[in-house]
Design brief:
InterPro entries: DUF7674. The protein has about 120 residues and is mostly helical. The chain is built from 6 helices and no strands. It is globular, with a radius of gyration of 13 Å.
């Protein structure tokens, strides 16, 4: 099982252009989510500049987090990474489908859940 301590190192290995914060307390849920929101910002920046497709390993890593991650890892990826990415794409004129096309099956399911939730919230 992938633990919270493995999340950022796994994403860094898959996306070498991302520079994580120097010291992260992985046991602190807020710190992990903050670091995942930094990953989200980096990925959206890459997409905005047309470079995200050059980082295919990051989508394999995200999929691995959903398949092999402990429940708190899956929750952190959904709320810390995907929710942050979804909020950022609106500002950058990037469609959810553009990101969805790059995701693998398990992570795509959760991406669509965030997208559906966001659409319903916007309608209210």
């Amino acid at each position: 099982m992938i633990t919270k301590q493995n999340v950022i190192p796994l994403l860094k290995e898959a996306c070498p252009s991302f520079e994580p914060s120097e010291e992260i307390n992985f046991n602190d849920k807020e710190e992990l989510q903050h670091e995942l929101s930094r990953v989200a910002g980096h990925l959206i920046s890459l997409e905005y500049n047309g470079q995200l497709e050059r980082e295919p390993d990051v989508f394999e890593a995200i999929e691995q987090l959903y398949i092999e991650g402990e429940s708190d890892v899956k929750e952190a990826v959904t709320t810390g990474l995907f929710q942050a990415m979804h909020e950022m794409i609106i500002d950058q004129q990037i469609s959810p489908e553009e990101i969805g096309m790059l995701l693998k099956p398990h992570s795509l399911k959760w991406w669509k859940t965030i997208d559906h939730f966001s659409e319903n919230s916007a309608e209210q």
